[in-house]
Amino acid sequence: MHEKPLGLLAELTHRCPLGCPYCSNPLALDPREDELDTATWLRVLREAAELGVLQVHLSGGEPGARRDLIDITAGAHAAGLYTNLITSAVGITESVLTGLVQAGLDHVQISIQDGDAQSADRIAGYAGAFARKRALAAAVVGHKLPLTVNAVVHRANIDRIGDIVDLALALAANRVEIAHVQYYGWALRNRAALMPSREQVERAASAVAELRARHQGRIVIDAVVPDYYARYPKPCVGGWGRRSLNVTPAGKVLPCHAAESIIGLEFWNVRERSLAEIWANSPAFSAFRGTGWMREPCASCPRRELDFGGCRCQAFALTGDASATDPVCHLAPDHARVARGDPDRSWV
Ligand code: SF4
Ligand code: FES
Prior knowledge:
binds FE2/S2 (inorganic) cluster; alpha/beta
């Protein structure tokens, strides 16, 4: 018997007006005509709740590109799910927000690209995006919804974490997430421009510690060490097929948002099967669930149920073998691929 998933990432669309260089969309986007219709999403959300899911993250692309976003949110709320909207803010007008609140929306997460307008709009590739984020954040707080600000940091903005936290405070966010770029998909393609130096990462870690002390009780600051510079990998998605699932705009069910980057995995689709059947039996979920698939050094490692061998997508991206130990681990045979001295590390 498998554990129950707790979270569902509903990627309602891959459409998005912004063009961030670290976008988590796959390299090949689902076109609009392949997107699931409203009725199918409502069924998926009901099935998710029956399966044990507690939280749904309504995401994209930009979920505001879906005309039925309010209906989908209402369906999730009716199914008993806690609803979190993950948005760039571009595409969520004040009247849409009011409709979402009436539909039962519980939480909003707005992504920001930097602490100041000019740089933020340049990174997003969209003039005026920053101003829209500020306006939506004010409206969210006006509706008394909890607000999280999410900032992806990389070489061009990592030295301004203080400004980013100041901005989150000015927006009256409850929480700010400082997320380091994860290098697969678009970010791997743009890695040379995005990867911060070790000195930058170290400065950022002390900045976060200092900001946490200074703003304690006013805002929660979530930040983790970027895994290229960590000793152990992160327990990606809390372990493959263990805590969460992800439905793509066209209905494929993935163990994590980047799983399609692993060539050769077979994903099942909610158009043909129930979410419960997919969770229990889909070949993609079974491939790396638990610890039975592991080779050494993970197979006998005391940390194998803590980090689950790291990220399968990163292992595949860096070694071509998704069952390899994540090269971020200092024990991994392929660790040289992320360590200093690798001839491929032209980006350091
Ligand atoms: Fe984790 Fe495997 Fe490294 Fe052990 S060897 S710490 S299980 S990635
Ligand atoms: Fe897919 Fe880590 S992003 S397992």
